[in-house]
Every structure is written in C-alpha cells, then in structure tokens.
Amino acid sequence: MPDLTNLNLSEFANKLSFLAEDAMHPSLFVSIRYVRCLADALPARDKPGLASLLRAARINRASLSSAEAFITPRQLDDLLLIARERTGRSDVGLELGLRIPATAHEALGLAAMSAPSVDAALRVVERHYPLISGLYKMVYTRGGSGGTIRFLAACALNSETRLMHADILVGSFHAQLSRPLAAALSPVTMTFGAERPRHARRYFEMAPGGIEFLPDMPDLVRIFLPNADLDKRPAMANVQTFRRAERTCRQQLVRLQARNSWRGWTEDWIRSVEYASPNLKAAAAAGNCSTRTLDRRLREEGTSFRKVVAEVRHQQAMEWLGEGHARVSDVAARLGYNEVSNFSRAFRRATGKSPRCARTRS
C-alpha cells in the first residue's frame, strides 16, 4: 500500500486532471483560432502581458500561427481564469464570444451567413456544430410560437468557469446572428443555468426580451426566437453559396469524426504545413504539449512521427503530381524540400520511379 500520510490532495487532484486530460479524445479540444479571438478581446493596456498570460496557461505562443493547433479544455479554463484575474473583469468570456466572427468558423460560418433563412442557418449550424467545438452541444427545436436553441456541456466543466463558457456562447450568438440582424429581430429572450453575475446588465442590452437565471437548469444557456424572426432572410443569403458551403461542411465533419486518434490529428497538421519540413517540435507546439508527450501518444497507437510524415508526404506528392499541371520543382517546394534533387531521390526510394515519370503517367 502506498503511504498516503503526507499526500497533498490538491496536488494529487491536479495530477489526476492532467492524466485525464492526456487521455482525452481529440474532438474535445479547442481550436487555436478562438485563443486568437481572446487575445483580441484583451484591453490595450493588457496586450503587453499576452505572452505571460499564455505561458501561465501552458499555451505555446507559436501555436497561434498554426492552422491545426488546439488547446485542451483545461488550458482554456486556465486562460479564462487568469485573464479574469488580471483584467479584474467578470465578463471576459462574454468579450471573447463577442469577438468570434462567423468567419472564424470557416465553411460553417459561410453556410450560416448565406442560408435562405435564420431557421436554415440554425439548422445547418446544429448539424455541423462539432466543427465549431466539441466542448458544447447545440440542440435546436422549433414548434409553437418559435424556436429554442439549447447549449449544453459535452463534458464536465469547472464550476469556476461554467458561466464563462455560457458567456462565450451568448457573446458569439449575439455577434454572429443578433447583431447583424439587430434592426430586423424581435427582442431575444435568454435563460442561463447559473446564478445572476455582476455583469448581468450586459445581457439585458443583448436580450431585451427578457433574462432568467436558473442555477439548477442543466443547460448552459437557452435562447428563444419567435417564428417571425426564424423566417427572416439574412442579408447575405445566397442559395448557391449556401449549398457549396454546406457540402464542404459535410466533408469536414466526416473528416473530423474520422479523426479519432492522435495519428489522425498529426496527419491533418502535417497536411497544413507547406513550403516547410514538418518536425516533431513544431507539431508538439501546435498541440500545446511536449515533444515527449506527442511521441508517446503516437507510439501508443503503433506509429511514430517520422513514419506519419513519410506516409502523408508521399500521399501529397502522388496527389499533386497526379494533377498533371504542377511542376516537379513546385511539388518539391510545397513538400518542404530545398533541393529538387533531394525530393527526387526520396521519391524514387519510396516508389521505384522518378517524380517526372509519375507525373507523365498520371
């Protein structure tokens, strides 16, 4: 039996949370693009402290420039709590939400903006919500006098940050739907599954239709829109754009759901790196973990970073050469080779033929 006499419970709980976080499914992680939005939300006087804020939350600043980078739910919580402490503001989550534009959601944001109606926009977002975040679940139902949008936690949330998560959702909803349609929408009503915070007056500015606080409600927040609003046409509505964006969303969701492993995430990260050679240090930075941690995760799945790089780069080489119009030198550059000859030798070792021959045959 281990000696528990001198066990520090808070330290033990902290270690357990790190272990749980390390085993967490990649779908629960938070895209780095939302951290960029939080950086934008900081008051000008706090901008110089951004680097120390990221360090305190164990977030590698280099990850901000990586398309496939993410942070863990724990890192997001730490970031929110530290930002609240340093700014002295209880509405940090709300400020973050208000600074998340629809364009931050890429194809899904375009689908929502170009939808033929507010109802269609809400439905397409609900169907593809994992593309926005795996931390929350969105449930949209319509019936009777209107429609209700429910946001629930997809995993256990820290009680200290629960309201801040609700604030993120409310702020982003307002920024992406209510604010653009402010002149056309009726007063929105909201119900929070939390106690009334000290910044509650800000909610009434966004939802003059009414606010209610129900601490025992399991939902983070519920938002009600009357039928008249749901049938309204967004300013950027365009059927062709909507269909193209929705098709892209379906494809992205399939890829996301197939990404059920660290190998899957690593493959996506490697594909996002062009005109540079992917390396373990940069990949770990994008994943906001140590190189040792990422290496161990991949080994536990029976592979290695070097092997995944070789396989993905080979797939990309075959794909780009197969397009027929790309020059071998261009393909080599996109794959991160400084010399075409180095690429040619590596390609010949892997396939037994030259890149030029592969391009001709394709």
Walk me through what this model shows.
Residues 279-361 form the HTH araC/xylS-type domain. Keywords: DNA-binding, Transcription, Transcription regulation. It holds the Pfam family HTH_18. This is Transcriptional regulator, AraC family. InterPro entries: AraC-type_N, Homeodomain-like_sf, HTH_AraC, Tscrpt_reg_AraC-type_HTH. This protein is α+β, with helices and mostly antiparallel strands. It has three domains: 9-92, no CATH class; 102-250; 261-361, Arc Repressor Mutant, subunit A (Orthogonal Bundle). It contains 18 helices and seven strands. The strands form two sheets. It has a five-stranded mixed β-sheet. Strands 1-2 form a two-stranded antiparallel sheet. Strand 5, helix 9 (201-206) and strand 6 form a beta-alpha-beta unit. It is globular.
Protein topology:
Blueprint: H1 9-22, E1 30-31, H2 32-41, H3 50-56, E2 70-71, H4 73-87, H5 92-98, H6 107-114, H7 118-127, E3 136-143, E4 146-153, H8 162-178, E5 189-192, H9 201-206, E6 210-213, E7 221-226, H10 227-230, H11 239-258, H12 262-272, H13 280-286, H14 291-300, H15 305-322, H16 328-334, H17 340-351, H18 355-361
Parallel strand pairs: 5-6
Antiparallel strand pairs: 1-2, 3-4, 4-7, 5-7
